[in-house]
Amino acid sequence: MRHGEKADRLAELADWVRDVLLAWPTAQRTIPRCWSRHWEVIEELSMLYCARSTAYLWEERTDHFACEYRDRWLPGALERLDVRLWPCAESHQPNGTRRDNAEPVDRSIAELRRL
Questions:
Q1: How do residues 3-38 score in pLDDT, each as one tens digit?
Q2: C-alpha torsion sign, points 95, 36, 27, 76
Q3: pLDDT at position 96
Q4: What does the alpha-carbon distance between residue 16 and residue 33 come to, in Å, rounded to a whole number?
Q5: Domain boundaries, the chain
Q6: How many angstroms separate the CA atoms of 106 and 12, rounded?
Q7: From CA 37, how far away is CA 74, in angstroms rounded?
Q8: Which runs of consecutive H residues, i.e. helices, occur in the chain?
Q9: Using alpha carbons only, what angle is made at residue 6 by residues 55 and 40, rounded to the nearest 5 degrees?
């Protein structure tokens, strides 16, 4: 994948993280603002994005897909991210209201576009 395409996909993922995933309080506590600077986190979130899209948007979906996403994929991904990002969460995670990740995500997208 070329860097411009990576930037486009990261922007799409960032919109989903902001609009959908961060609606979950557990996700807000787990995912620090700097998530877009960690490629292994981008991989994990991308997998979760695909799993949710399959569970809720795929034409051949059934209730089973949504249940599996909520009971298995979402908690499992958040648990793995919590372990992986513990050091960042200690110093980067703000308390309080829903946050805006636009600045660090925009920096990551801009760097990809420059490459």
A1: 889 899 999 999 999 999 999 999 998 888 888 888
A2: negative
A3: 46
A4: 14
A5: 3-93+101-114
A6: 12
A7: 21
A8: 3-19, 25-30, 39-57, 63-68, 74-84, 86-92, 102-114
A9: 70
